[in-house]
Design brief:
This protein is of the alpha+beta class and 95 residues long. The protein has 2 domains: 1-44, no CATH class; 47-95, no CATH class. The chain has 2 helices and 2 strands; from the N terminus they run βαβα. The chain has a two-stranded antiparallel sheet with strand order 1-2.
């Protein structure tokens, strides 16, 4: 494999690699196109992923306000694309 990280034993390793998910955000939310980047941590799970979202806000805000905005998007225009929970879940809980 051209990416030596990804050529390792995936069933026993966490593997840092690139992801198309961050790029796909620009397709779903055109206003974010080119403003977002990310990486993936491959772990042996069947069908879930996580986003480690970092940003610089243009105005003073709180964690509660950011969480509310993400939850509103998950319950509204991004329903079925984005999920939000404050439960102490692990990946198998989403299957």
């Amino acid at each position: 494999h051209k990416d030596l990280y990804r050529g390792r034993a995936a069933a026993m390793s966490m593997i840092p690699t690139s992801t198309g998910a961050a790029k796909a955000v620009g397709l779903v939310l055109p206003e974010l196109n080119g403003k977002l980047d990310g990486f993936a941590m491959r772990v042996p799970t069947p069908n879930v992923s996580v986003v480690d979202l970092k940003f610089i806000a243009k105005k003073a805000t709180s964690v509660a306000e950011v969480n509310a905005a993400i939850k509103a998007a998950a319950d509204g225009p991004l329903k079925g694309v984005l999920g939000y929970t404050e439960a102490k879940n692990v990946s198998i809980d989403f299957n």
